[in-house]
Each structure stands twice: as structure tokens, then as C-alpha cells.
Sequence to fold (141 residues):
Amino acid sequence: MRHSYRCPLRWSDMDAFGHVNNAVYLRYLEEARIDFLTRAARETDPEAFTGGTVVARHEVDYLRQLVHQADPVTVETWVVKLTAASVTFGYEIRDPESAGGPFVRARTVVVPYNLKEGYPRRLSAAERSFLEGYIDDSHSG
Fold:
């Protein structure tokens, strides 16, 4: 299963070349990840990820140019790898109205973190159970 997030494009997302700036894609990924970990996860467990998370790594493959459009793009998020104290998310940014492939394919390693105490922590049983429902390793290559 994958989580879908409809992400609006902003006029300010474009750079001097008339397409969405490469750094902006990280914000799109962040918005989708936050929606996934706060809204979707907390629907199953209100305490899920309330302590916080930190990004340990990003990998981004820019596949096609994205120019500003009125309709949102879709950011699909899924779990590629799950350990006791980290999760690797996979993403694709797509235009559901376009026949073309994804604009971006990316991965992010996220570590659950105790923001109050300032140290990494393990995933709770409820968090792990929620994330297991989104494992999709079909793009693990």
C-alpha cells in the first residue's frame, strides 16, 4: 500500500529556468512525509510519532522537468526498509493527469527521535505495525 498526498505547486517554486527548482522537491517530500506520519499514522494511534523524527539521509533522482501548473501533483510515499530504529521511505512525485512517468523518485531515511530529551529512539510497536502496512519494495533496485 502507498500513501498519496496531493501537493499544490506555488509560483515561487519555480527558478529562473521556468521549472520547479530542484531544492523545492525536498519540501514536497517533507509535506507528504509529515502528512503520512502525523495525519495518517495518528488515525491509527494518536501517540504515533508525537516525539518527533529526524532525517538522516535523502537520495533524489530527478527524472523529468516539472513546470508550474494549477493542479497539484501527487506524492506517493511507501516504506522501503524498516528497522528497529529507522525507516526508509520511497517516493514518487507524479502528475495524475499526465501520461508521463514520475518527475522524481526519491528515498529518505528517517530516525524516530525524542526531541524533548535529544536522542534517537526505537519505533514503538504501534508505529512499526502502522509502517508495516506500507511496505513496498518493488522499487528497491
